[in-house]
User: Fold these one by one.
Assistant:
Number 1:
Amino acid sequence: YNVSDMKIITVIGSGLIGRSWAMLFVSGGYNVKIYDNQPGQSTKFLSLRKQLVELEEAHMLRGELSAAQQLALLSSYDDLSQALDGAFFVQECVFEQLEVKQSIFHDMERFVGKDVILSSSTSCLVPSKVFSKVQNRSRCLVSHPVNPPYYVKLVELVPHPETAAAVMDTTHALMTKVGQAPVLLKKEIDGFALNRVQAAIIAESWRLVQDGVISVKDIDLVMSEGLGMRYAFIGPMETMHLNAPKGLEDYMSRYSENITRILSSFGPVPDFCGEAAKSVINVSVMVTELPCSVLIKCHLSPQRAIQYSI
Ligand code: NAD
């Protein structure tokens, strides 16, 4: 594959994530064909057009093409086979329900050649489940975006156990070409990388509040005024490497005993929904104010921004 020679990408599902992928792919000069099986497709399509024009006016449009040029690359279909015709890459963005995903991939396979890459946006389902009804699984992978993908560049590429290396490489090249920051997982795992790290942070933050060690407001400050400042620019590995005069090995020889002791004091998975969780949840609702920067930066509706911030 050479992603510069390929021209057509199909996006399946025109919800929040499908529309965002469509905007990204047209920003890279690809023809994007969108398919959705629910009524209201044309309204969603119009909102996409409006968004691209607004982004151009705000000088925030991605890619080299004008909004008019990007709009000319977009088309919308009610028929799955027409939507898939000519595509080299398919990005699925339907509801996060295993049966819905399994069945749409099964349907798709009837209409595409064996080399067409089938990619899923799933947040929480592992590839071996999503693609269990696909015959040729060597062309399947998960490309997990972070919401909103137009502004957050990370994409986790997660292989099925049978995925061909060339499929991972092509998808990596495609994501890079449209300006995203792809990372490769070498094998599938529940939660992929981002959600596993996020779950660890959530668990410990929750536990510290629930155990009466710190307030909700202050644990958020630990992230927004401390760790987050650092991690917005460099990752945990690089941070450790820079935090000891002789690098990572030196860092571990100094601090690994502390880290191991702290880690072994972590308890089991906290109670997130039961009686014990009420103390955390009731306080959070009182102190949480939606920062208006989220609204401005993400161009989201207040409804979406609230969901995003949660
Ligand atoms: P959404 O509900 O906004 O959109 C889903 C769209 O899929 C709807 O337009 C619906 O009509 C369409 N659809 C449903 N079944 C279909 C079918 N069989 N054929 C064609 N279209 C169908 O959902 P979303 O937030 O855009 O999420 C889509 C996927 O992206 C999910 O797998 C989700 O886990 C993943 N994802 C979401 C986020 C997020 O924060 N929203 C982040 C990363 C990944």
Number 2:
Amino acid sequence: MKILYIASEALPFISTGGLADVIGSLPASVRRAAGEDTDVRVVIPFFPAIKQKADDSFELVSHGEVTLAWRHLYCGIWKTVRDGVTFYFIDNEYYFDRPFLYGAYDDGERFAFFGRAVLHLIEETGFVPDVVHANDWQSAPAVIYLKKSEYSAVKVLFTIHNIEYQGKYDMAILGDVFGLSDADRQTVEYDGCINLLKGAVTLADKVSTVSERYASEILTEYYSSGLYHVLRASRDKLTGITNGIDVAYYDPANDPEIVKNYSADTLGDKKENKRELQRICGFEENDAPLMVMVSRLASHKGFDLVKRVLYDVLRETDITFAILGTGEAELEEFFRTAASDFPGRVAVRLEYNKALSKKFYAGADMFLMPSKSEPCGLSQMIASRYGTVPIVRETGGLFDTIKPYNEFTGEGNGFSFTNYNAHDMMAVIKYALGIYRDTEKWEKLTRRVMGVDFSWNASAEKYVGLYNSML
Ligand code: GLC
């Protein structure tokens, strides 16, 4: 089988979020699951940060031109091989040499170009995949162009990692920017706009989301960001497969970024990482419970709840709290203020920093993730791997991966609450703090949390099954 993954980011090359984790680890896992004769390739844009780190293994495949509406655009193709998987990089400095990945006024045009470039890649390399696995709206133009091309028989799985981002544009630029004609209008039109995600969902042979729960949630008005009509119409081809994580990369026993390696058998050594994180945060080095968040500062991550009760939790308990992440200015401001209102108890690091995030995962006691919606969520699994007990809201992948602790039976691998309600969250945090004080129970829970298998193994098998079912 020949599989081509299309996405906008992939580890270890570039990452702004969970998508990069998935594209960096799923393809190799699929290759292991399907057999080494499976030809697995990935294509992403050649962003400047990737170029800067490119080593000697990167080679130029071709350089030429692609056409997008009336534009003739330079298109370089580079490649390197990692773990048996070929990674291609689409080069065009006009579109991709920017200090950020997304958020430009011309994102639609940038990823339309990327979509054209993917077809060009297929032609240049002669690599005609059996299955294209496209991810999120940035890959939607590629799906639309592919399904209109001579390669329309290629099967497409389109995965929604987050339905809130759809790639919506004014209908007026359908021809001029996307090079689509009036005949394509119906495919991409939603609510009077161009909606790229809708176009890809409509044309794909199968659609998936990154957890089972989220696949059912997006059929509802509350979770679908306006698209539930479209998804209900595509219901028969919709499934959910829960993400795994790269358990070799996220391994407290071998992680070079943390001060002291440890495993479930040497749990005592986790404490040294806690001391290190307390130093980083400017906290006293003591046994006060340390709860962290590592998150994009976006409202759907549950910050309404945190804003509502953080001060109360700090006043009523001995908890310490640290957050790592960047995002909305208003949230950054809230946490800066909290840090100055509670010196020695609240710390903020407003940055996206993978190395530092490992110190947060390893050093904390509890990991808070009260998302309003969460397609899958990887942080709760990463935290678990480092023996940091997740406290989550029961939504999407959080619901599928974290089962609430039952102190009487010892079952469960975290703490959870159902409704998007600040005081429900506060009650659960306080309950977790109570368990934390019972050292014996807490240690048992921590070991249990660390023991859950969040590797890709089971999910890679499911993807292989899904790919086969399409052929
Ligand atoms: C998006 C989702 C997140 C998911 C990730 C990888 O970032 O918001 O829930 O884990 O994609 O699929």
